[in-house]
Automatic annotation (TrEMBL):
InterPro entries: ACCD_DCysDesulf, TrpB-like_PALP, TrpB-like_PALP_sf. Residues 15-291 form the Tryptophan synthase beta chain-like PALP domain. The keyword Protein transport does not apply. This is 1-aminocyclopropane-1-carboxylate deaminase/D-cysteine desulfhydrase. Keywords: Pyridoxal phosphate. Gene3D superfamilies: 3.40.50.1100. The keyword Cell cycle does not apply. Its cofactor is pyridoxal 5'-phosphate. Belongs to the ACC deaminase/D-cysteine desulfhydrase family.
């Protein structure tokens, strides 16, 4: 088996006759690991083709996307600007006093600017974007989370990679903005199933987001997926003893570190669904580790 595709031997899966595999996208690219690299791939190509030298994007103070765009800028020769949700820290941009995500982004060369939460709500509006470009100069704009039509083809490529390695009946992935799930659906093209696990509370709206993305990208929506919304553990990036205990146990048993915002919730959900008989006996399920491990440094700073 490919070194990125790992067998997960869990008693619950064996009892239900389900084969569980873990795709390690967190190991697929050393410099820029995880699904963010896939979502950025064709966006970076478009930015280069359009003659841009600067990437401008949005994110929270602990955002995986902000971290990935900063790294991509260094690797591919772009200036990067991050518009961060929230007030500027009293320390300004002193890397020694920033949180780990923003300190690393600064070290990668990203210029940080802060937007109050009321202003940040307008981040997708054309007039607001025009104001930012007038302020910062010409730039290729990447949306929060990196999710747009050009993000989907890079994620869809993972389906072809997996099909070359193994037969499977379902893919499972964490869902934040819906881009990765939508990309997988375009790659599946209506065949095997996909299971999305919402990482945020009240995530039912994400189905509409996924459908809009696939409609925009390939001209159709897909029915071969479900969105699981009961595994958010209190909301996006919320502290949960139960979740952290699961992550610790999973690492001890399988040698794989999950993150507390996305992949920990996704694997917890997959194993719970297996126990409940969600997947038919004889199924092969591939859970996708989308990376996001940089979040641990910020998590430890916030929660200990």
């Amino acid at each position: 088996m490919n070194e990125l595709l790992q067998e997960i031997n869990e008693p619950a899966a064996s009892a239900q006759g389900v084969r569980l595999l873990l795709w390690r996208d967190d190991l697929a690219n050393h410099d820029l690991p995880g699904n963010k690299a896939r979502k950025l791939k064709y966006n970076l190509a478009a930015a280069q083709q359009q003659g841009h030298h600067t990437l401008l994007t949005f994110g929270g103070a602990y955002s995986n996307h902000i971290a990935a765009v900063a790294t991509a800028g260094r690797l591919f020769g772009f200036h990067t600007i991050g518009l961060i949700r929230g007030d500027a820290p009293a320390s300004g941009t002193d890397p020694a006093l920033l949180n780990p995500t923003l300190a690393q982004a600064t070290a990668e060369g990203m210029a940080l600017h802060y937007l109050g939460r009321s202003a940040y709500r307008h981040r997708a509006e054309l007039d607001f974007l025009a104001e930012q470009l007038a302020r910062f100069g010409p730039a290729y704009v990447l949306p929060e989370g990196g999710t747009n039509a050009l993000a989907l083809p890079g994620c869809a490529e993972l389906v072809a990679e997996l099909r070359q390695l193994t037969d499977f009946d379902a893919l499972a992935v964490a869902v934040g903005t819906g881009g990765t799930l939508a990309g997988l659906l375009t790659g599946l093209a209506g065949q095997q199933q996909a299971v999305g696990v919402a990482a945020l509370k009240n995530g039912s709206f994400l189905s509409a987001e996924v459908d809009a993305l696939t409609q925009q990208t390939v001209g159709q929506t897909f029915a071969n997926y479900s969105l699981q919304t009961d595994y958010h553990f209190g909301g996006y990036a919320k502290y949960s003893v139960e979740l952290l205990s699961f992550i610790e146990l999973f690492r001890a048993q399988h040698g794989v570190l999950l993150d507390p915002v996305y992949t920990g919730k996704m694997l917890f959900a997959v194993l719970d669904l297996i126990k409940k008989g969600y997947f038919p006996r004889g199924s092969t399920v591939v859970a996708i580790h989308t990376g996001g491990l940089q979040a641990w440094a910020g998590w430890r700073q916030r929660f200990g």
